[in-house]
Design a protein that fits this description.
- This protein has one helix and no strands.
- By secondary structure, it is mainly alpha-helical.
- The model has no long low-confidence stretch (mean pLDDT 94).
- It is rod-shaped, with a radius of gyration of 37 Å.
- 0% of the residues are buried.
């Protein structure tokens, strides 16, 4: 093989290796970014689930309190009617 071809092959291999290293570095960077985004998504989902649970508990408490108020109003109305009948 002539020296010129050998030199050309070596330079080509060097360029390919340089490109490979550049792409590997880019891949590692993108993988780190994906991992970071997955973690952000996990944290956001966890916060959403906490807020949903808090909302569910508040609605349940409100519903209980509303039922208690309605029962008290019905009891008061019953007593008022009973008092006025006498």
């Amino acid at each position: 093989m002539p020296a010129v071809l050998l030199q050309f092959e070596l330079e080509s291999e060097a360029r390919v290796e340089h490109r490979r290293q550049t792409l590997l570095a880019k891949l590692a960077d993108l993988q780190a970014k994906v991992k970071e985004q997955i973690e952000k998504y996990r944290q956001a989902r966890q916060k959403r689930e906490v807020l949903e649970e808090l909302r569910r508990q508040q609605l349940q408490e409100y519903t209980r309190e509303e039922a208690t108020r309605e029962q008290q109003a019905a009891d008061e109305l019953f007593l008022l009617r009973r008092i006025h009948r006498k």
